[in-house]
Here is the input.
Amino acid sequence: MNLIKGITIKNVKGHSNLSLTFKDLVANYVSIFVAPNGFGKSTIAQSFKSLKANKLELNKDDFFENKVENIPEIELNIILEEAGQLKLIANPEKNELKEYLYTDVITSLLTAKTASAGGPVKYAKMAMKNIVLYDSIPSKVGFPYDIRVFRRSSKILSKHYVDLKELLKDTENLYLIYENYSLFNGFYSKKRSKKLIEEFYNSVSEIGIEASFVYNEHGLTNNSDFIEICRIVKSFRRIEQYYSSELELVLTILQIISVTALKKSELKGYIKRIQYEKIKVELNEQLEIFNTTNRTIKAKEKSGKFIVEFLSPNKISNGERDVLSFIASLTLFKIKINKNVGILIIDEIFDYLDGGNLLVAQFYLAKLIEELKAEGKFIFPIVLTHLDPMLFKNFYLKRQRIHYLRHCSYREDQGITNLLLYRNNKDDLSDKVQQYLLHYHNNNYVFTDEEKTILNFIEHRSSYSFYDATQQELEKYLNNQEYSPLMVLCATRIMIEKQIFDLITDDNSKEDFLSTHTTNKKILFAESKGVNVPGEYYLLQPLYNDGLHLNQNTSETQNKIISSYLKLNNHVVSSILQRLNEQTSFILQSR
Here is the structure.
C-alpha cells in the first residue's frame, strides 16, 4: 500500500513549523484537507509549488517572517510499495522527493498585470495565465509497421495476418512494449530466436499450418522468452479482437516483435507523439463541451509549443474559467507525471465552483485517477478546502477520505441532541426548555426528577447548571480541546442574550426581553429600547440559528453537527467568541 504518514513544513509563509500526521492518507483516494482560513492551507500549496528539480526554492515573500535566514523545508514521511518506508527531505540544498515522486499544484490562474491608460497612467488589470501543456511538440516518428510487408512474405499465411495498426496506436499497449523492450528486442536480435522463427515459417510451408504446431512443440512456442512475450501480449488492451486461433496469436506476436526493430528512443518518441495526438483531440473536445462563451477556447500549437490560451477574465464567467482551467491542469499533470507515484495538490479550486461545475471538476478528477491507475501509476490527490465536506458526498468522489487539519476534534453529544429534538414537542416542558435552557434567563430554573427523566438529560439539575456546562465546552473549544459543537452554539446564544439583558436598564423592559421569542426578535426589542447591539452579535446569528434547529432525520442532524464544527473552525468566529467569553460573567449556583 502507498501511504503518506506525515507532512512537516518549516519556515514557509506564516508558519515556522506546520506538522500534520495521518492514519489513512492512501493513494488513489481523494484526500480532502478541511481547515479554516488562516490555518495554513496556502503554506502547504506554496511549499509543494516551490519544489524544483534539485531543491526547494521560495520567493522572498514566502519565507517565514520574510526572512531568508529562516531555512524552508518539507519533510515527507511516506510508505511506498516499491521502496518501503521513507523520510524524504526537500530544502534549498536538495529535493529527495523527486527521486520517488512527481509533484504538482493546481491553483487559480488569475494574475494581475500592469496596463496603460495612455501616457504615464498605469493600472492593474486581471489576466489569465496560459497553460503550457508541451514546451516542445513531439516530433513525428516513422513507425516500421506495414501489414502488407507481412502478407507479401507468405502466400500460405497471408490471410492469417491481422492488421495491427490500431492496436499499435494504443499508448498503453506501446508502453508495455517499451517497459519490456529488452525482452522483445532481445528476442528479435538473438540468433537462436531468429532460427526458431525461421524454422516455424519453414514448417508451415513444408508440412502445413496445423502440423507446424506439432513440429513446434519443442521449438518457438515452447521457448521461455516467447512464452513470456505471449503472456505480455495477451494483456494488451483489446488484443482478443486480433486473433481467433493459436496460429493467429503466434503471427500477431511475431508482428509485434518486429516493431522492436525500432531503437528504444525512437519507440519512446513514437509513443509521445501518439499520446500528444490523443490528448490534443480529447482535451479540445472537453473544452468545447464546457465552453459557453461562444468564443474559441482550445489547446493549440503556437511558437513550437502546445498551449491553452484563455480569454480575458471579463469575457468569461468565474465558474467557467475555473472549470476549464481545472480540466486543462489535470491534463497537464497526466502529461508531466514521470514517476509511478504522484502528489497533486488542488488549492481551494473547489471552494468557488457552483454545484454544476463542482460536479464536472470531481468527475474529471475521478477520471484522472482511473486513467493513471490503468497505467500502473498511483496518485495522491489532495484537495485543500474550508468547505463542509458533506458537499462532496453526493458527487463522483466515492473514494475519498476527509482529514480535519485543525489540532482538535469535535464530540457528538447525544444529550444536547436529545434536548434540541425534544423542544419540537410543543408542550409545557418544551416551553421550559426553550425559555430556561436554550435562551438566557436570569432566574435559575430547577428541574424536577420527573422532568429530568422525560428529557433524558439528567446530568443538568438546573438551567444555571446547564449554562455552566456550555461554558465548559466553550473553554475546551477556545483551548483546542475536544468539544461539543452544539453546546458551544448554546453558549454563544446564551452569552449574547445575557450581554444584551445586562445593557437594558428598565426592569419592565428586562422582563419583556426575557418573554420575547427568538434571539433575533430579542435583539430588535433591545434596540427599540435604546440598546446599542454590537454588529458581531448579528454576525453570529446564522451560526446558532441553523445549528440549534434539529429534526428526526439522523443524516441531517449529523450534517448540521459537522457544518457547525466547520463554522466554528473559522478563526474570525473563534476570535469573536473569545472576546464574548471574556466579557460575559455568570453568577452560577450550585448544582
